[in-house]
Amino acid sequence: HMNEGHAALVVVALLEEQMWGRRLGTATDEDVEAVRQRCVFTTHTPVRTGHDRFPLDLVRRVLGEGRLDALEVCECFFDRTLNMTFLGAFFSRYINGVTLRHGQIAQAMLSYPVDSITNGVHAGTWTSASFQRLFDRRIPEWRRDNLYLRYAVGIPLEEVRQAHMEAKEEMLEEIDARTGVRLDPVVMTIGFARRATPYKRPDLLFSDLGRLKEIARRAGPLQVVYGGKAHPRDEAGKALIRRVFEAAAALQDSVRVLYLEDYDMALARYLCAGVDLWLNTPQKPQEASGTSGMKAALNGVPSLSVLDGWWIEGHVEGATGWCIGDGWESGSDPVEEAGSLYDKLEQTIVPLFYQRPPAYAGVMRSAIALNGSFFNAQRMLSQYAANAYFPNHRR
Hints:
It is globular and about 75 Å long. It is an alpha/beta fold. Helix content is 47%, strand content 12%. The strands form 3 sheets. Strands 9-8-7-10-11-12 form a 6-stranded parallel beta sheet, with helices on both faces. A 4-stranded parallel beta sheet has the order 1-2-5-6. Strand 8, helix 11 (235-250) and strand 9 form a beta-alpha-beta unit.
C-alpha cells in the first residue's frame, strides 16, 4: 500500500523480484500485471507541489539504465521528468482519494479509475480525557466499536457541556504554562491549527478587522488560538504567520489572538478538544481531506468551514457545525467567503453560544454522534480491507 508517490519506487523492487534476473526492459504485460496485483495506491493531495517529480538525468544516475528502461514504458515520464504519483498509480490495481470530492479530482488528474475512502482519525488518541470518561460511562462499547458514538444523541446536554468545560480548562492551563497568558474560560474561543501554507488561508478571518471587532462588540466577545508551522522553505507560509501576528496586534483591544509555538500532536490534542469552534478556511478545491475538524468533532467541537475535503461529507448545517460559502462545486471567492464567515459568526454562531447555551450544546452533541461515529480510523480501515485489500472477499 503506497501512500502518495514518495514510496513508489517499491514497484521497481517488486518488478525486479518478478523478473528473476531478466532484464527489466523486457518485462511483459504479464510481469507488470503480476506487480499490479500486489499494489494499491492512495493519493493524498490535489496540490501540485505535493507530487514528487524528478528529472530524467537524476533518475538515470540514481537508478541506472536498466531500471530506467523499465520505467520508460510505464507512462510516468512527462517532459523528461519522472512523476512518482503516476508511477505508483500505473503499477496499482486499486487507487483511491481520501474523500469523495478528492477522488473526483484525482480521477481527472490521473486518468485512471479512482475510488474514494474518506480519511478518519484514531478515536482513542484524539478524544480528550473528559470525553473518554463520559463515553465510558454512557457508551461503554465505543472503544471496541466507534460506530457506537452514534448513540451520543442520548447523552444529556449538561454532561456534554461539563466534559467540554473540563477539556477547555485543561487547554487554557496548557496555554498559560506555555505563554504566561491566561485566556478567559467563559469567552467563546475559536481554534485554527494546521500547517501554515497559502491554500489553507489562516488569515481569512482577518480580511476585515473592523468587521471582526464589531462582531465581538455586538454579538459577544471572542478569543482566537492559532497553531501550526510553515515548511522552512515556504516563504509564503511564513508570511502568513507574520500576518496573523500583525492582526493580533491590531485587534489586541477587541479580540485576543494567540499564536502558539511548537505546534505538535501533544498541543493539538489540547486545542482540538478545548476550543468552542473549529475554523477551517481552505481554498477550494485544494483540501484533499483535512483531519483536524474530525479530531475536534470527537470532542464535541463543531466546525465552521469552507465546503471542501471531508467537510462536504461531514457538514450538516446547524447540526454538526456551519459552512462558509454556499457550495463546494465552484472555486473559492475570498471576498464572498470572508463575508459568509463574518455573517455566520455574527448572526448565528456567536449569538447561539451566548444566548442559547443548551442549543449550542446540542450542536456539540450532534457533532459527536454524526461526525465522530463515522470519521474515525476504525471505519476507514474497514473500508480499506473491504475495498482495497480483500475485494474478492466481499459478499
